[in-house]
Amino acid sequence: MEDKYISCPLADLWNRPDEPRQRVTQGWLGSPVEVLESQDGWQKVRLPEQGDYEGWIKADDLETKRGPSVEGPQVIVALPKAVFENGWLPLGAVFPMVDSWEEGGALLLPSGDIAWLPFGDMWEWPHKRSSENDRPMGEEVLQTAAQFLGTPYLWGGMSCLGIDCSGLVFMAYRLQGIELPRDAHEQWEVLEPVEKEKYLKPGDLIFFSTDGTIADHVGIVGDGGQGQFIHASSSLGGVQWSNWNEPRWKDSLFSFRRVQVST
Q: Measured between alpha carbons, how far is residue 215 from residues 15, 179, 206, 212, 257 in Å?
């Protein structure tokens, strides 16, 4: 297997290289990939940053790794679209910080270019929650998800240009340094159930099922215990707040689950 990285701000991964094909996820600039197979300008890759998710990507969207790894602090982009002089970086992308000034730092991109960003646009990576006075994780998860309000729904989407339900959950928790599976049914499978609504906390996940047997939609429980949740909905056209007590959601509500964080 050959190691490469994604060389554009955002790259589509598809279920097959030829038509008809369906987008399965997206990867970010600098994300490492393992090339599994090549075919007519396409390469099948595995994304370690997304739980070894596999898909087909255009060969032009990849570059071969060159040179030694850069030592030093790593940061993760914390805005849906962090703009710098020569382009933009999506939330979730991780880079080494090679220099800093009073208000920000210099990120070394895989091309060798430098992106200067203010500290408010990025977080230390991996994100560490070492202080008892830290803001509750659920609130930070909701804050990240809320940055995507109004973002169009896109099957397989993982950015401010378009995102799907499990992608929104994945991104909100990724910023906390927590790795969840990419797809809703797999997220449901690995998480612990919350048996009663009265025990829910902000940041818990709410799952829905069309047929009552497998989770096929997911959202993030809001604060206040009023039935509010934020999600990327295909029927609503994008990321919005909804209430699970409304008939359209209550009828397909499957379960609540919680992301357990080890201390």
A: 21, 19, 10, 8, 11
- In whole angstroms, what is the distance from residue 238 CA to residue 176 CA? 23
What is the model's pTM? Answer: 0.94
CA torsion through residues 182, 184, 186, 192, sign? positive
Token readout for 242 is 């909804």
Residues serving a catalytic function are: 165, 217, 231
CA 261/CA 71 separation, integer angstroms = 28
CA separation (Å) from 166 to 9, 38, 158, 217?
20, 28, 9, 7
Residue 242: beta bridge partners?
A: 229
Which pLDDT tens digit goes with each residue over 67-90? 557 777 999 999 999 999 989 999
Question: In the prediction, which pLDDT does 177 show?
Answer: 92
- Full DSSP string of 36-60: EEEETTEEEEEEGGGTTEEEEEEGG
Q: Are 33 and 7 in contact (CB under 8 A)?
A: no
